[in-house]
Amino acid sequence: MSEEHRKYLRGIKRRRSLVTLARVLLLVLMIGGWELAVRLGLADPFIVSSPSRVVSCLAGLASRGELLPHVAATFAETAAGFAAGTAAGCAAAVLLWFSPFLERVLEPYLVVLNALPKIALGPILIVWVGAGAGAIIVMALLVSTVVTVMTVLAGFLEQGKEKQELMASFGATRAQTFLKAVLPASVPSIMSALRISVGMSWVGVIVGEYLVSKRGIGYLIVYGGQVFRLDLVMASVSVLCVLAAAMYYAVAFFEKRVSARFAETAAK
User: Fold this and answer.
1) Which residue in 19, 144, 193, 209 has the most C-beta neighbors within 10 A?
2) Rounded to whole angstroms, how far apart are CA atoms 227 and 105?
3) Residue 33: how many CB atoms within 10 A of its CB?
4) Is the pTM of this model over 0.85?
């Protein structure tokens, strides 16, 4: 490795470290400014709460054994909705790629379903599935599936037709063309769909918990707002941010591993 290459790699590492440091400092400044504003009387703690009151609220929930069941319920519902929505969305995208006629027929319906506020279907889901975890998971599935279908299908359709026509000229079937040409080239689109689906799954679960749940983070947020316990609301939102970020970075880590594996396969 040349000295110029080493300098280049050190520069990349230095920039990444600076970005990480800036992110941490920004978070510290935001939390510290929030706490300082409350202590100096610049903000009403009843309206905006404060970091110290949020920590106290979380500690109280944990000591009473109430925090973990709510977190576990929301996380389990989100994981189930994410897994089911991703699997269904990818399967539907593959089916539509194999049938251009069906893709053209269903395209406007997918657009409408994507634009439709899924909360409008809440009362219907409650009647069909029941007022329980099932309705919440179905809500998360609906929110994430349509986005996954459209993102993955767009990735499939963007792949150049020259390579597909070349493989067809050599007698490759449509399935072989998909497995050898379209799918490997669409890995970035699939990974992007996973990242989007994570956020959509959290949205669907929280919306579902707003409507029907008697446990979970969404329930705590609604209950805290109803009884004017803004500490509980802010504490629940803080936990939600941590869980959503953790799940997002887990998917991002999985994306790096899969992308590296496909890159190694392509190099061979």
Assistant:
1) 144
2) 49
3) 13
4) no
Q: Which two tokens stand for residue 104?
A: 């053209």
- Residue found under tokens 């440091």: 21
Q: Report the alpha-carbon distance of residue 258 to residue 95 in Å, rounded.
A: 23
Q: Are 110 and 146 in contact (CB under 8 A)?
A: yes
Contacts of 257 (CB under 8 A, 6+ apart): none
Written as six digits, the tokens of 116 are 């439709």
Cβ pair 209, 216 in contact under 8 A: yes
Q: What are 220-263's pLDDT values in tens digits?
A: 998 888 888 888 999 999 999 998 888 888 888 887 777 767 65
Structural fold of domain 46-267 = MetI-like fold (1.10.3720)
DSSP 182: I
Q: Is 81 exposed, middle or buried (0-12, 13-18, 19+ CB in 10 A)?
A: buried
Pull the structure tokens for residue 107: 């395209």
- Nearest CA-CA partner of 140 in 217, 198, 219, 221: 198
* Residue that has been written with the tokens 């920039």 in this structure: 15
Rounded to whole angstroms, how far apart are CA atoms 197 and 150?
11
Pair of tokens at residue 115 = 């634009």
